Amino acid sequence: SPGWPGLIEAYRSRLPVSDTTPVVTLQEGATPLVPARELSRRTGCEVYLKVEGANPTGSFKDRGMTMAITKALEEGAQAVICASTGNTSASAAAYAARAGMTCAVLVPQGKIAMGKLAQALVHGAKLLQVDGNFDDCLALASKLAIDYPVSLVNSVNQFRIEGQKTASFEIVDVLGDAPDVHCLPVGNAGNITAYWQGYREYAADGTASRTPRMFGFQAAGAAPIVNGQVVENPSTIATAIRIGNPASWTKALAARDESGGRIDAVTDRAILSAYRLLARSEAVFVEPASAASVAGLLQVADAGELEPGQRIVCTVTGNGLKDPEWAISGAPAPVTVAVDAAAAAAQLGL
Ligand code: F0G
């Protein structure tokens, strides 16, 4: 088919596929790398946004899911399962539908955004709300995958990481080299692991001259890696990263330490402030969890710990339309007017 073929075809030689692998794709990847003028001004750096909400189901999960579902199909699986704070379930449901597979999803009851729930349901997933948090859902999904004929497609599945590492490839391909710093939100810590793997692979074969420092940011009420201990009852408005015991904890620490980076906490207030700044000043509508990368960047800059002049990429992981609640609650209620130009003009202050 014409145009961008999806990330497996685009990076075939760097992924664990063969000529006979039955590729399942929605032509994910090739997402925009948008220069961020206001963030660049505020930090004195050259800041870009990797807009992962532009993927087919509206999040970076599609990069991992094209690989995970492709490999599950290749291995003859008929059903897949995942635990999710919402985006993984939306993506798994879509790619499983594309592959003609059954998809089961376990989500924390009452703690996933409406848009994500809608996506899982419309693509035909079998969805259970679990009376517990994400960590409970993941433990349950992992157990089911051991005891029943169903493949786990959470990021503990290495094929997910393989797919997600391609975001780093795209960034280097566009910028001509790795950035100085890469910022991203951290939840279960699969994505920071994947980016770090991608950057390392490009540096190892000379496609990039270096690797960036990896800056990860957790929500303050769900910051086990920052605190150095499991959070039993994680709490944040950024439901996508409401995780108290990340599966890839050790790998996130390795990404931080090997890259000379940092993993810090950002408050919900800072996340919402970055969320509004992104929408108003950069015109990029993201979901709250995605704004953690930008909140973190601004926090480091405000602390005077960011050397000016650096090239920085912030991944914004998910589309704002998935979780519009915070966009609406933070804005004045719309006024209703008659079909009357003078009345409309008066209300608009024209
Ligand atoms: N941003 C968004 C929008 C997410 O949905 C997630 C994770 C993250 C960031 C964090 O990425 O887990 O690789 O560190 N969402 C998972 C899910 C947990 O179930 O959709 P991570």
From TrEMBL:
It comes from the Bacteria. The keyword Chloroplast does not apply. SUPFAM superfamilies: Tryptophan synthase beta subunit-like PLP-dependent enzymes. Its EC number is 4.2.3.1. Its cofactor is pyridoxal 5'-phosphate. Keywords: Amino-acid biosynthesis, Lyase, Pyridoxal phosphate, Threonine biosynthesis. Pathway: Amino-acid biosynthesis; L-threonine biosynthesis; L-threonine from L-aspartate: step 5/5. It catalyses: O-phospho-L-homoserine + H2O = L-threonine + phosphate. GO terms for molecular function: threonine synthase activity. Residues 24-318 form the Tryptophan synthase beta chain-like PALP domain. Catalyzes the gamma-elimination of phosphate from L-phosphohomoserine and the beta-addition of water to produce L-threonine. Belongs to the threonine synthase family. This is Threonine synthase. It comes from Blastococcus carthaginiensis. The gene is thrC.
